[in-house]
Amino acid sequence: MTFVTGLECSRCGHTAEPGRLVNTCPQCASPLLVRYDLHEVKRHLKKTDLLDRPADMWRYFEVLPLDEEEAIVTLGEGFTPLLRVGRLAAKLGLEQLYLKDEALQPTGSFKARGLSVAVSMARTLGARELCIPTAGNAGGALAAYGARAGLRTHVFMPRDTPRANYVETVLAGADVVQVDGLISDAARLMQQRMAEHGWFDCSTLKEPYRIEGKKTMGYELAEQFQWVLPDVIVYPTGGGTGLIGMWKAFAEMDELGWIDERRPRMVSVQSSGCAPIVRAFEAGAEESEFWEGAATFSSGLRVPKALGDFLILQALRESRGTAVAVSDDETYDAIREVGETEGIFLCPEGAACWAAVRALHSQGWLRPDERIVLFNTGAGHKYVDGVPQFANL
Amino acid sequence: MTFVTGLECSRCGHTAEPGRLVNTCPQCASPLLVRYDLHEVKRHLKKTDLLDRPADMWRYFEVLPLDEEEAIVTLGEGFTPLLRVGRLAAKLGLEQLYLKDEALQPTGSFKARGLSVAVSMARTLGARELCIPTAGNAGGALAAYGARAGLRTHVFMPRDTPRANYVETVLAGADVVQVDGLISDAARLMQQRMAEHGWFDCSTLKEPYRIEGKKTMGYELAEQFQWVLPDVIVYPTGGGTGLIGMWKAFAEMDELGWIDERRPRMVSVQSSGCAPIVRAFEAGAEESEFWEGAATFSSGLRVPKALGDFLILQALRESRGTAVAVSDDETYDAIREVGETEGIFLCPEGAACWAAVRALHSQGWLRPDERIVLFNTGAGHKYVDGVPQFANL
Hints:
The structure is a homodimer of 393-residue chains.
Chain A lengths: L3 E6 L5 E2 L15 E5 L1 H7 L37 E3 L1 H7 L3 E6 L9 H14 L4 E5 L3 H13 L2 E7 L4 H9 L3 E5 L3 H15 L2 E2 L8 H5 L1 H9 L7 E5 L4 H16 L8 E7 L4 H8 L25 H10 L3 E5 L1 H15 L5 H15 L8 E6 L17
Parallel strand pairs in A: 5-13, 6-7, 6-9, 7-8, 10-11, 10-13, 11-12
Antiparallel strand pairs in A: 1-2, 1-3, 4-5
């Protein structure tokens, strides 16, 4: 059984029936979001029921879009550690700093969450071949879950993506197309090919289910903090699906009566080499503009224009959050500092969050007693050849 | 409080007091094992009590050697996924094949378990600087947990260790010494230096606590299989601490009344380029002989002589298990096959286990209806430059 009531356009409100393969809103081409009968979920599920369930993201099955558990394509994703990082916190006099470590995921990144749900749904709804443009980790995750599901996958990836992403994707049996350019160029090439082959487009927010997987980060944070959300969430933002997803999760949990009305201030972290959300946030704009010449070793942040930019910006503003750009030098210093201080080998995108906390702290934007969560979205091991400074170690 | 009663030599039975820093048996220099008052543990803890505990290896706190939870040095280790791999199983007509995926660990390998406990104990007992010789992953894990604990670490590593191991170890602030040679050469150099500096030796089985962390793999398997152990465990064997640890866990759980007297058949998997345990097992010997000229891309299996070899061989024989050597070509084929079939990017050591299952199946050593568990001991991402064939992908 499922509690899904339908799909709703995040921009124009148009509703669509679930139960068949869809991409974006047929009216305005904006992202579709899954809606649930949360009143019914509330009758069926208490948050204390979760305690006995396996420690993966599928413990939130009632607020996920599958009809039956047998349809799950899993590699053991979710319920990653929430680590107190006290030694790091002490550097800035912070009292309650936490790291949500998404390195401990199948395929070594947070992309596992979204692709697990998306591939499960795509297979259920009859897709046979799946395609994706990627900055790196999403391609590896699509290939992995596709293989696990017995589906063919086609991955379009910039040629300068870290080698680990290329290798993992090829090894999972994907058809990998390396593209000279950025994820936006990869997407353009994919668009040309997918229609003639009948592939299903798994680009983030161009299908409704990856965000459902990503939102489980919000459910986990709530559960791991005993249903009191933190004060600040610092999140690296490429496509921004995780941030939008967590914001959606908070609204759902509020409606379920699992949390109260308080929300964290949401912080988008980008690279100064590709910061369309930061620029739009500072300009007071509702959408971002395409960032020309994106360049940063934080490959997951090389996203010149996110389809869900307006949703990211909405969440930042509604939450009284902010957006911060950090340089690659600051990010590298953060990799070193967190490694030496806490023993955690962050991915560059995760390290950028610590650099952002340093910046926000120096601006007085953070109170020392606030509960702050950084997201490490993947394993540093996947970037060994991606960070130029590592060559000199 | 702790249920530890003392340390006991695994060879001569000599007992030693816990509560101070020790390495091997003062009488015969063999590994010391931690003994618990399991009768008291049984009075305090039911296996059903575990259900409410966090999904990490510290849920088994009563059978771990720490006095108090505050002493734990954690990065979120343990309770890794146990995945059914049905598509892979179908290739050989097996009905119940599982993979325990230790890639989802801090530092991306199973070494996190042992080093978490060892570093926690070393710090508690007053060590200030820790040292280790490593084939790769153990060095990264010692450096990480050392940093987390605020202790200095010294890691001696063959120069041809995969780059990810070197980078992760340096980034965690360790003093890394690259050695031309094997782990045995690294150990020899470390021995020369550690005495004069007063470092504490964290070599596996040269201190009593790494094995206590490793044994939690046995506890987890039992719990994940609802307290009925599988029929066969296929385990890649370098130092062999995990295998010895699981065997110890099974005996403890039997005494606790958590499992019955049935035991899995234990299978040691090695590389044909370094197979001292296989050779000793086939020769009916009680110990292995130093393997000259060890060479394999499965860097974790480049261990020419394990200190606990006699314990490994005992467990293989008591369990009516066996030992299997596979070539690097077979291992590479296994990486490809498991990647394409299940979407899992195995480390070479984990892939060797699938190659071994293929070999054992063709010999008729496995019954199709048996429950078989393969161990993937680390993330394939850490070996991107370690497997020569990857350069041609």
